[in-house]
Amino acid sequence: MLPHQFSDGFRYVALPCPPLPLCPLCPNVVAASTNPRPQVDSAEACSTINDALDRYTRYDADCPAPLREAIRYALLGPGKRLRPRLVLMASEACGGQIEAALPAACAVEMVHAYSLVHDDLPAMDDDDLRRGRPTCHKVFGEATAILVGDALLARAFEILASDVRPPDVAARCCAVLGRAAGACALVGGQSADLASAEAPEDQRGSLAALKGIHARKTGALIRASLELGGLVAAASAEQLSALTGYGELVGLAFQITDDLLDVAGSQEAVGKRVAKDSDRGKLTFPNLLGYEASRSEAAKLIDAACGMIEVFGPRARPLDALAKLIVSREK
Amino acid sequence: MLPHQFSDGFRYVALPCPPLPLCPLCPNVVAASTNPRPQVDSAEACSTINDALDRYTRYDADCPAPLREAIRYALLGPGKRLRPRLVLMASEACGGQIEAALPAACAVEMVHAYSLVHDDLPAMDDDDLRRGRPTCHKVFGEATAILVGDALLARAFEILASDVRPPDVAARCCAVLGRAAGACALVGGQSADLASAEAPEDQRGSLAALKGIHARKTGALIRASLELGGLVAAASAEQLSALTGYGELVGLAFQITDDLLDVAGSQEAVGKRVAKDSDRGKLTFPNLLGYEASRSEAAKLIDAACGMIEVFGPRARPLDALAKLIVSREK
Asked: Distance of CA B80 to CAs A289, B264, B325, Å?
């Protein structure tokens, strides 16, 4: 597998695009199933997404060079590209074309990247390592990292509004992403998560509270990825309902797995500091349920998620495979 | 003049909505001109804007209470409401209705409020005072202040996308605001401004460089306010061109006046720390041009701006009066 090459020779061009070895869209997986061949295999999907993210962040001279470099560092570095791939897969499940779904895919990845940059700041989670590299503020300073997040968030909406067609779908996509990134979702979840870490140990809340935090902090953007993919493919109300239902369940399973990796994963594989949540006394699923029960809960959620997308038939096989991959991942 | 009352009894409800005494839309100004009476006078416009901002930030229980309180502290406190009033005035110049322009007016004020919260952070301009009150991070902490900005930015797009009609205009508005808030405009200007303050004194750049910084940092959002007001009123290409031309000139004049107030204004009147830019060695218009030449430059820009909107006839009188007010303001 050749590493993905960015067009402008940026300094991390040579990193491979993960997690290809396990990707559910790889040709061997497809060949073994009765699934009609997806429009692109996984390597191609990652490369298509990375190329589009690269194009969308070239900027003209009005963007100061250090800011541009920092934006591209935060966005184009190695990542699972889970959310943009979910956008493309949801679109494909509804019979949509990749080209039409690509702006929405890039927009959600930008929102995800912005949230990581801001969450890593010293005033927030204070993390030094992300995706196996120093965090944005460690390389470019706090002021620039704050601005990187701001710029990525604004760019996400600019792209949706400009490049999704037709315009009424573009507006609907902006509304969905605006809500998912807002005070009652992504930002609210981070705020609640920070508050739970500061609370006395006996007041850190219940399983319901923990699920509520992650439904917002992680789940909302994953759910929105599915919804956007459906919207750009002109999905029916029933199809959107199936996709968002799948998104909610997969989002929660993803977070449980994140917590499990924080306990059991190695820093080298995960690419960020591990055991940090439990060290900080944050509420986590293994803390509340125990390790094995958490694994079992995640598996149940994935089964339910896969059940929801059966209505799409073979076109939803990539979504089905990705859901199963999410709970078996090592990073 | 009764102070504006917020609906939920928030703790700063009793502050008056400035700067009413000098407002170009006040009845006495209107009565003295041949202008057809505007749809609302200034007090009514401020009250309408504040009511809408209030409604747009009530949030449901998914938004943690401290975050909600901090968002409303940053957004609903006293302010000139210059940008939302420009949206309403631009719409009115093109024959639009206030109700149709109000979502766009609130969206630009949210972007402005977010940018102030982030710019005031210790890692950025490190300001303790804003609009006569402690800055958001001084009251609620840095983590919450970062999240407040993020939430306001996302909410601005959600509102534009959901409440501007028809949807193709909503999408166009999101694209305009996304660009104005992005890395080549608002965020890029702040980044360039921070870099200029850190540069050695003899490398702080020229008048062209300073204008370039402020065309992005201040000008882009003021220009976008005019463009959004035109768009929601179905302005023609010629009308949009006149409005954005006015916006660019007024934006620059506004920034020159800001620099002059930083030199000559009192902290009490301005509501934020004064002489901070010159103390920090930041590039400013008075530093480069001298005080009187800066005043004269601002006056020339305003004359040119007012010339650009003559095509609208009497409907643009509020824009004309506001432009003149901008250079004579004391805060």
From this structure: 52, 19, 12
- Minimal C-alpha gap between B26 and chain A (Å): 35
As a residue count, chain A comes to: 331
Contact A81, A16 (CB under 8 A): no
How many CB pairs below 8 A link A and B? Answer: 188
Task: Print burial letters for A201-213: b (CB count within 10 Å at least 16), e (below 16).
Answer: eeebbeeeebbbb
Residue with tokens 């480069």: B288
CA dihedral A17, A44, A101, A255 (to 10 degrees): -40
* Amino acid at the residue A52: A
Determine whether the interchain pair A188/B64 forms a contact, defined as Cβ–Cβ distance below 8 Å: yes
Cα separations in angstroms, B251 against A215, B45, B255: 42, 21, 6
Contacts of A174 in chain B (CB under 8 A): 157-158, 160-161, 170-171, 174
> What is the residue-wise DSSP string for A167-195?
HHHHHHHHHHHHHHTSTTTHHHHHHHHHH
Coil, helix or strand for A127?
A: coil
* Distance to chain A for B89, nearest Cα, Å: 24
State which H helix or E strand residue B134 sits in: strand B133-134
State which amino acid sits at residue B163: D
Instruction: Tell me whether residue B304 is exposed, middle or buried, using C-beta atoms within 10 angstroms of its C-beta: 0 to 12, 13 to 18, 19 or more.
Output: middle
Cα A186 from Cα A106, distance rounded (Å): 17
pLDDT at residue B177, as a whole number: 98
Residue B14 phi, psi (nearest 5): -85, 0
Residue B75 and residue B87: Cα distance in Å, rounded?
17
b vs e for A137-165, b when ≥16 Cβ sit within 10 Å of the residue's Cβ?
bbebebbbbbbbbbbbbbbbbbbbbbbbe
Per the CB < 8 A criterion, the answer to whether A312 and A94 are in contact is: yes
Beta-carbon count within 10 A of B270 CB: 19
pLDDT higher than 60, residue A76: yes
Residues in contact with B289: Cβ distance below 8 Å, sequence separation at least 6, in sequence order: B207, B297
Q: Residues A255-301: pLDDT tens digits?
A: 999 999 988 765 565 566 656 666 666 788 998 999 999 999 999 99
Residue whose tokens read 């024959």 = B95
Backbone phi, psi, residue B132, to 5° = 75, 10
Residue type, B90: A
CB B138 within 8 A of CB B128: yes
Contact at CB, A144 and B191, closer than 8 angstroms: yes
Let me know if B178 is exposed, middle or buried by CB neighbors in 10 A (0-12, 13-18, 19+): buried
C-alpha count within 13 angstroms, C-beta hemisphere, residue B126 = 8
pLDDT tens column, B25-47: 333 333 233 344 455 457 788 99
Min Cα distance A122 → chain B (Å) is 9
Residue A108 in tokens? 């959600």
Q: Which two tokens stand for residue A242?
A: 């199936």
Count H helices, E strands: chain B?
A: 17, 2
